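User: For my dataset I need records formatted as: sequence, then structure tokens, nothing else. Please produce one.
Assistant:
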Amino acid sequence: MKTVRLFLFSLMALAPALPLLGDVPDWENEEVTGINKEAPRASVFPASDKTLSLNGDWKFKFSMTPDERPADFFNPSYSVSGWDTVKVPSNWQLYGYGTAIYTNVPYPFKPNPPKVMGEPPRNWPAYRERNSVGSYRRDFNLPASWQGEQVMVRFDGVESAFYVWVNGHKVGYSEDSYTGAEFDLTPYVRPGRNTIAVEVYRWSDGSYLEDQDFLRLSGIFRDVTLFAQPQAHVRDLFLKAGLDREDYTTGALDGTFTIRNSGKKDIPAGMKLNYSIDGISTNLNWEGRNGSGRVQTDNRGRLDSGTLEVPSIPSGGEVQISLNRKFPGVKPWTAETPNLYRVTYSLNGKDTRSVNIGFRSVEIADNGAVLINGRAVKFKGVNRHEAHPDYGRAIPREVMEKDVQIIKAHNINTVRCSHYPNHPYFYELCDRYGLYVMDEANCEAHGIRNGSMDISRKPSWKKAHVERNMSMVHRSKNHPSIVFWSLGNESGNGPNFEAAAAAVRAYDGTRPLHYCEFPHGHKAVDMDSAMYPPVDRVENWGKQKTSRP
């Protein structure tokens, strides 16, 4: 890789930009957060013969501004033979394209929400790189066995906004860099070779909610995956695996399977959803305080299995079916005892998938203590950014695992995903190794909070705030390691965050809510929080009687 150019911001001037003339692009319209993007769901994939990774070499063209981009590169007839090659996932700054910018509070572009093309000071990188664009292209071969099925593509992380085309057809658009974006490619793919093109914008209106204190990087930095599924398939599932609060030894499973009919014909009643629940033993094999060693799992016997009847589903429609069971004597999940159970399911014997769950409860006692499985827990935590000197934000799985091993080796039991949802694999590691997680939505508008540009108080930004929170919740809701949801970070405390809190609560009432910006006692969240309080203030809090953590 080439040397990364780094620009350190110390400028605080936040003057408004001139309005953009002409048509408003999607990436400067705060109410356009996606086009043809699928509804968010739990991050569960089909079996390996129905998935195809698009990670690897992509042809790549870097453009300093949107006007300089190759506008018709998505046409298969457009030659990209002379283009450079980059690895996906990666950040393009690590290949020497554009400037890696570190800034804490100020935006790296001239702020005037939702615009990102205003003229900043001449000594800012954004003066020349007004809004750089990365154009990606590659071919792939569609397996013959996928014919007749729905073909999907999933991008797990792209910063900050992107369009996608297949075989010259425009498929869709997405914002929100840190949760998955899925698109239905079925109308556009064909047997044999296909061409996929992705146009990534460094900054967009979505960047106003991505003003986290970190190194600003760009590109397709997480996995890209193709997968196939039958026209009738389990699109989503939410398995609330709690404990009966009478004794905390009886598992209480409240499950919902969402089944979609993507075909053109109605499906009559009579399909069968088959499921099984098997115990998994987890062995922590440590080799010293440096965090080496691995987690090993093996089966520990079947807890339950059965069949659920599926009602009729109209073309293009969905139905939900429930799975409610009690299981006396389950092995609870905690950070110290990360006992897991694997739920395997299929529809009419096809499209078998599995997800791990852990039986545990989270509640707040009258004295403000947080109880896990009925016992008060002292949370000893760290904040974790996805950042690496060699890989940027494209963190390899072995590096994620090393992070978790080091955290565990130093008697830390909690991680806050600051300040955005992490890679899906990180939560699997936290489930298996045993770490409590505060998952945090990709909402930080630090540079404009509490001022005239505060977007937490602007109705046109409500959709983005709510969607980013719900995308996080839908993606990771089945992980037992996640015991708190956080609405975001340092972004003001306007009604858009109250709306986000209400949406999360309406869907998942099993986890307490956090947000650092609300005043103490605010009903939108379940705990009180503050940024960087002095020691005496913390001591005074500890002496007060309160019903909130």
